[in-house]
Amino acid sequence: MRRFDSAEAETYVSGTLNVGRWEQYGLGDVMPFGAMWYTVPAGQSSPRDCHPEHELSLVVSGSGTIEASDRMTDVEQGNAFLLDSTEAHIIHNRSTEVPLVIFSAYWMPRGSEPPVDGQ
Amino acid sequence: MRRFDSAEAETYVSGTLNVGRWEQYGLGDVMPFGAMWYTVPAGQSSPRDCHPEHELSLVVSGSGTIEASDRMTDVEQGNAFLLDSTEAHIIHNRSTEVPLVIFSAYWMPRGSEPPVDGQ
Predict the structure, then answer these.
(1) Is there a contact between A75 and B3 if contact means CB atoms under 8 Å apart?
(2) What is the CB neighbour count within 10 angstroms for residue A7?
(3) Against a cut of 0.90, is the pTM above it?
(4) How, if at all, do strands A17-21 and A12-14 pair?
């Protein structure tokens, strides 16, 4: 059994976000998806993102508004949300005081071409 | 984009647990893993469980102690923990007042036989 804490992860800055990729845990042979922690600072929003992977997220702490498919959807700590393949999205932190921390798992749609590295 | 809230899920009682399987969301063609919400009531523990799937969990709310491989590991709201295939485990709710709510994703190890239904 292994425990993972977003507050202890190695992270890097990407635009407005602080990102902790799960590659650091060496689970590529175990997990059938990629994963990351990311933090949207208080009062800020993520860059607009759009990618071929489906993405399932859980709100670890804070509260946000997900802008996707011309809709704004509020999410609270503990909520999950699923973004479809190629569904553009912006993650807004609704709080001006508390960081928004999210766990995301992402994977290519079934039947899609595998990446060049065969993973 | 779809939002999921454990408090709004259809659940059933399984031993001491209240379980909300993600099959109710109809995502079998999208997700490369099974998923569930489950709640360990205040002051209680899950039945001992052991299964061939790897299992990645996130603590949605509450705090617990994971008993696995002869070790006790405390987990807090927001922590993730990964149980290996066939690693027996018991989930203890450390609180006598607050339910422990967990999101879990589970999948068969790479290279293992697919289930009979081909999923």
Answers:
(1) yes
(2) 14
(3) yes
(4) antiparallel
> B92 to chain A, minimum CA–CA distance in Å?
15
pLDDT digits (tens, 9 = 90+) for B37-55: 999 999 999 999 999 999 9
Query: B33 and A33 in contact by Cβ < 8 A?
Result: yes
Q: Is the pLDDT of residue A99 over 50?
A: yes
| Through-space distance between the first and last CA atoms of chain B, rounded to whole angstroms | 24
Tokens of A40: 């949207």
Integer Cα distance of A40 and A19 in angstroms: 9
* Rounded CA separation A20/A3 (Å): 15
> Phi then psi for A22, rounded to 5 degrees?
-75, -5
Structure tokens of A23?
């590659």
pLDDT at B103 over 60: yes
Which residue from A3, A61, A105 is facing B105, i.e. has the nearest CB?
A: A105
**B94 three-class SS:** coil
β-pairing, B54-61 with B71-75? Answer: unpaired
Q: Which residues of A touch B107 (CB under 8 A)?
A: 31-32
- φ, ψ for residue B4, nearest 5 deg: -130, 135
Give the one of B1, B61, B81 whose C-beta lies nearest to A73's C-beta: B1
Contact A1 B105 (CB under 8 A): no
Total CB pairs under 8 A between chain A and B: 100
Q: Residue B119 has what pLDDT?
A: 47
Contact B24, B9 (CB under 8 A): yes
**Residues of chain A neighbouring B3 (CB-CB closer than 8 A):** 66, 73, 75, 79-81
